[in-house]
Amino acid sequence: MAKTLNPVDFARGMPAQLLQWAQSVHKQINGSLSMGEPIGKDSTGNYNAFNQGNTSGVLIRIGASGTSGNSYAWTTTGTGISINHGLLKQPIGFHLVNSDKSLNIWQTVTPDVNTITLAPSDATANATVYVF
Predict the structure, then answer these.
(1) pLDDT per position as a tens digit, 60-88
(2) What are the structural domain ranges in the chain?
(3) Global pTM?
(4) Nearest one of 54, 58, 33 to 130, comparing CA atoms
(5) d(CA 39, CA 33)
(6) CA 21: distance to chain centroid?
(7) What does the alpha-carbon distance between residue 61 and residue 119 come to, in Å, rounded to a whole number?
(8) DSSP result, 41-77
(9) 3-state DSSP helix/strand/coil % of the chain, to nearest 5
(10) Do residues 48 and 91 touch, judged by C-beta distance below 8 A?
């Protein structure tokens, strides 16, 4: 995303309340947006727990089949696992943020206000997804 111009540069004829609002938007767009903050690591040093940032999504770590130390782990290739996303709304989608090998992930059922069910193309991969 491109950075915005500082509204102070155009403040001459702008009412004070409008300038305050524009500065608030400028500040958020230029560096204060956060998808989440890491708060824990697994035994390999990868982040596996996150606080929700100030966007309307959540980061979730999914471990490879047979691993421990993550809240979620794949069972087998092509089999969906139910993930409690905590958004209190039906998610509109997800993005694969990180994986340790080539990986495709897809929804196996329509998500609801509590869960999203995802399946991997390779259950031996570790992944981090952003559900939004």
Answers:
(1) 999 999 988 889 999 999 999 999 999 99
(2) 1-33, 36-131
(3) 0.73
(4) 58
(5) 17
(6) 27
(7) 13
(8) E-TTS-EEEEEE-SSS-EEEEEEPTT--SSSEE--ST
(9) 15, 35, 50
(10) no
